[in-house]
Amino acid sequence: MNASEHLVQLGREFHRRGWALGTSGNFSAVVSHDPLRIAITASSLDKSRLVPENILQVDSEGRALEPAAGKPSAETLLHVAIVQRLGAGAVLHTHSVWSTILSDYHLGHGGFFIEGYEMLKGLSGVVTHEHREWVPILENSQDMKALSEETARLLEENPKIHGFLIRRHGMYTWGRDLDEAARHVEIFEFLLESVGRRQMMEPQY
Ligand SMILES: [Zn+2]
Prior knowledge:
Number of strands: 8
Distance between the termini: 44 Å
Strand content: 15-25%
Radius of gyration: 16 Å
Order of helices and strands: HEEEHEHEEHEEH
Bound molecules: zinc ion
């Protein structure tokens, strides 16, 4: 399976699981690091109907290499920032209910910790449930240049995180390849729902 087919398969699966409904979410994989070439979903497409032709290649400025093939995702610059800052091989962005709710609730503290959950061990390099995962939150914006600069800053300040949220918007996570990034989406979505439901039972928790 090549990168385009893999991205299509993930898009359809994430739509089915409620993490990328409608045209929300965008997904990318690095094709080459030098020069930087990233395969990414085109803008404004229903993720349940993705086909390999909907995957475009962009350069380190987020520009489409073949502009006639379509417009890359509006959030391409955030993918580029994550790849450049961390050397990630794949970046996945979802719009789930739980990431949307928690990113709003915890914005005042700049983020929140997830700790004590066995499922944390699904994050790369984490070997114990005692791990404390900081999940930072950025304020949402339609200025993608500014948001990508804030993303770069956030990653510089928090080099060990596995993902972050954007307020009332969604989650970004990544991995060394698409398999690892997809696992991180699954793990985070489980953890975010667990944290959110737990808080509802006992709001002071
Ligand atoms: Zn988004």
